[in-house]
Design goal:
By secondary structure, the protein is of the alpha+beta class. It contains 5 helices and 10 strands. The protein folds into 2 domains: 42 residues; 195 residues, Distorted Sandwich (Glucose Permease (Domain IIA)). It is 23% helix and 17% strand. The strands form 2 sheets. Strands 1, 2, 4, 5, 6, 7, 9 and 10 form an 8-stranded antiparallel β-sheet that branches. It has a two-stranded antiparallel ribbon with strand order 3-8. The relative contact order is 0.17.
Length: 252
């Protein structure tokens, strides 16, 4: 049978052979993507908690992490209350092993514009001129004296991008404005940058490395961010697969 198929393939015109090759490559690519997705999901325990959070609102209080002060021996304050769903380096959907999550996602209780977000640590706040839903704060690294890091906060707008939930104290174009730990920065929203694809109510928070000139690196690349676990005193690296809610404990 195989020989007959090979013979038939050889008799095809050039365009027929090309079509068969394209179909074969597409099938292989689709199978490879499916395999990548399944494997990526197997390396994370985040999805069931996030699904439960949205599918069973009554479970939200027992899944939420609520901190009013930093964990013992940790410099940073958890910037918002809620389910710490996606973790640092997470491969759960919509991410995968080749494109991992760069920070943590904290899913708040309430409606857009009601779940407060606070500065994790003292520093200098910047809001670029085209940032509707985002601020970033520059810090002297409390764990590595002499180094500079940044904390990044985003999704602070409604899903259509018509209303920003960043506090009026920080208008677009703000640069190097001193803020203290616990300063109210804004409120959680659903803005993703595309009104056709809103995100569930949450804060995306990450710790970003500096370039040699002291500016912040591209936050969308996981290699440019730091594991927030030691800064917050919590197990926030997906490799530890912590149960939710996440408390003030670090893996041994």
């Amino acid at each position: 049978m195989v020989k007959r198929l090979i013979t038939r393939f050889r008799r095809l015109p050039w365009w027929g052979k090309g079509l068969v090759a394209v179909i074969g490559l597409a099938g292989a690519a689709g199978g490879g993507f499916a395999a990548l997705t399944l494997y990526s999901q197997s390396q994370s325990n985040s999805t069931p908690y996030i699904d439960r959070w949205f599918d069973d609102p009554d479970s939200q209080p027992e899944l939420a992490t609520i901190r009013r002060e930093p964990c013992p021996d940790a410099p940073f304050l958890l910037p918002s209350d809620g389910l710490i769903g996606l973790l640092w380096n997470d491969s759960a959907a919509p991410y995968n092993m080749l494109h991992r999550h760069t920070g943590i996602d904290i899913f708040g209780i309430g409606t857009p514009g009601t779940a407060p977000i606070y500065a994790a640590y003292d520093g200098y706040l910047t809001r670029e001129s085209d940032w509707l839903a985002t601020v970033i704060i520059r810090h002297d690294d409390p764990l590595h004296p002499g180094e500079t890091i940044w904390t990044y906060y985003t999704h602070m707008a409604d899903r259509e991008g018509q209303q920003s939930f960043v506090m009026d104290d920080f208008p677009t174009g703000t640069r190097d404005l001193w803020v203290e730990q616990g300063t109210l920065l804004g409120y959680q929203g659903e803005y993703s940058g595309n009104s056709l694809f809103p995100v569930g109510l949450h804060l995306h928070f990450s710790i970003v490395k500096s370039d040699p000139d002291g500016s912040y690196k591209n936050e969308s690349r996981s290699g440019n961010t730091l594991d927030p676990s030691p800064y917050l005193g919590m197990s926030l690296n997906i490799k530890t697969r912590p149960e939710r809610p996440i408390g003030c404990t670090l893996p041994d």
